[in-house]
Amino acid sequence: MATPASSAVLTFTEHLPLLAVAVPLLTAPFCVLFGNRNIAWLLAGLASIASCLFSLHLLLQVIDGDIISYHLGGWAPPLGIEYRIDAANAFVLFLISGISSIVIPYARRSIAHEIRLASQTLFYCCYLLCFAGLLGVVATGDAFNVFVFLEISSLSTYVLIAMGAERDKRALTAAYDYLIMGTIGATFFVIGIGFLYMATGTLNMADMAVRIADLEGNRTVQAGFAFVVVGMGLKAAIYPMHLWLPRAYTFAPSVVTVFLAATATKAAIYVLMRFMFSVYQPSFMFETHTLTWIIIPLAVLAMFAASLIAVFQQDLKRLLAYSSVAQVGYMILGIGLLNVTGLTASIIHLFNHGITKGALFMVTGAFVMRKGSSFCDNLAGLGKQMPITSGAFVISGLSLIGVPGTAGFISKWLLVTSALEKGWWWMAILIVGSSLLAIIYVWKIVEILYFKEAPEGNTAKEVPYSMLIPMWVLASVCIISGIDTDLTYAAAKAAADGLLGAGVVR
Amino acid sequence: MTLEFILGHLNYWLFIILMMTGFYIVVSRGNYVKKIVGLNIFQVSVFMFYISIGKVQGGTAPIFPVDLNIDPNVVYSNPLPHVLILTAIVVGVATTALGLALVVRIREEYGSIEEDDILEIEQHIQAEENSEHGSAMGGRA
């Protein structure tokens, strides 16, 4: 696939790694130029769908373990910037662009309800920038490029969250807190890259991996690892660094919460995986120790503590936000288990949790639209008044718990298998035990929806089809990928094999 | 740790001091504008760090002569970290601008940019929410 710089003419498909990122990035300014919210919405939708098709095409190309290397501007790596697509990032690209294609139709009515007219065009512009940034973070094979795209997505995320201020002014302080913490995280990440550059003299991740191989004892390399993990850990909301997340998710406009919950932390976790397995080697003692003695305890803490906090929340949006922190725990647990099954579980959970949480937050957005807020007491009796929306909640709620037949079951099953492969039966018990907490908080909402009488004279009608259909698409994907695991499992397995490519730990 | 070691790593010491100063301001100050100032110092320390590692001893500015008659004996500094930091500076400016814009909006909504005042207002809102929505839920808070 690698083409020399001299052959100027590449076919359209060879440009796909770049186009998947560039199309939304270049569409964003046009949204503002046209200055019409309907055109902006249409452009955002078309760009998402185009990206989604490109990513799917890439995924099908690399699912057998191939690697596509795209040289930006024809400059060959390691000097030029390289977009390196393998099964791992093609899968995450597909998740992000797929979610975006489903979110955009939903966004139109929900945005019309939650954001004032004048800001709606700008909303789509920021949304596309955030989307393009996340795709860029995932697609690129250049360490500094990761930082640049990370900041593109972060800066637009702060704006998107602050747009929730029209409903609740606390969105502003939530966005401000996230800005401070996100910038510290991103700066830590840059320091880490700086150390890596000092030790290796390259920014290309594949080249870095080669040069780092015999630098295990180098303290610069070790310090770089610490900075990268902490910096990305902040972005991924790994348990003690999650403080920005519940407030940001609670006060952001519903659509933003749907999109961020389903994609943003996933991109950060992907970068963590990339650095832990492709750049650094899991055979490095300092990495193995970090994963076993720091990451795994934090993961378990997240699974229990965050779930427990979720149980006591009165606001559905905040409840689901804490549940997201807990689910990040499962993902990093899979990374920490350090075997192929664990990593497969982690990657498949990225996808499964993305669609599950996407569906749940879409339902929440529908409740917010009809009842004005997502406080639990407002939801009483909605099971009868909004049966279609509530049905989607039940299905995706089951997937969140991990009931057999849903997507969530597959990832938890793989996690348990992975723990047993290591002989850690107690870990398997912990995984199942923390799922019980998920049953409590999902049941709490189901009980309110279906078994509480609505207050007198309080009626709510279903939300429009443009919101119901995306919600149900995601809910059905929860079921489909829980029954027919061929595509997701094959992709996740190929991704895990690719990441552990050196075959160091098996 | 000899004096030679300390002096030889002077740029790292400065980087660490500047970085920690910025970080401390972000954590300790309650004023939202001061926090942004701290964040800026924090970021600038990293810029300085990058630029200092690009320095080659005895190296000159990495600019080729116009006639491209390159003297092989001339040592050039490494320009790559500088280029990276140009990008990072742009990012830093954007972050500062956005942060200050948020502070302006916070001032409009809350009437203050002091963390203590804002936390008090938010606790008040939260308490009201709890009494309104919590009682209907059987007092679960």
Main sheet characteristics of chain B: none
**Total number of β-strand segments of chain B?**
0
Q: Tell me the number of helical segments of chain A per DSSP (H or I, 4 or more residues long).
A: 19
β-strand amount of chain A: under 5%
Distinct helical segment count of chain B: 5
The shape of chain B is elongated
Strand order, main sheet of chain A: write it out. Answer: 1-2
- Which secondary-structure class do the elements of chain A indicate? mainly alpha
Ends apart, CA distance between termini of chain A: 29 Å
Give a verbal description of the structure.
The complex is a heterodimer of chains A (506) and B (141). Chain A has 506 residues and is mainly alpha-helical. Chain A has a domain at 319-506. Chain A contains 19 helices and two strands. Chain A has a two-stranded antiparallel ribbon. Chain B is mainly α and 141 residues long. Chain B folds into two domains: 8-57 and 72-110, Helix Hairpins (Orthogonal Bundle); 115-141, no CATH class. Chain B has five helices and no strands. In chain B, helix 3 (32-53) packs antiparallel against helix 4. The radius of gyration of chain B is 24 Å and the shape is elongated. At the A-B interface, helix 5 and helix 6 of A face helix 3, helix 4 and helix 5 of B.
Key features of this structure:
heterodimer; A: 506 residues; mainly alpha; two-stranded antiparallel sheet; 2 strands; 2% strand; disordered N terminus; disordered C terminus; B: 141 residues; Helix Hairpins; 2 domains
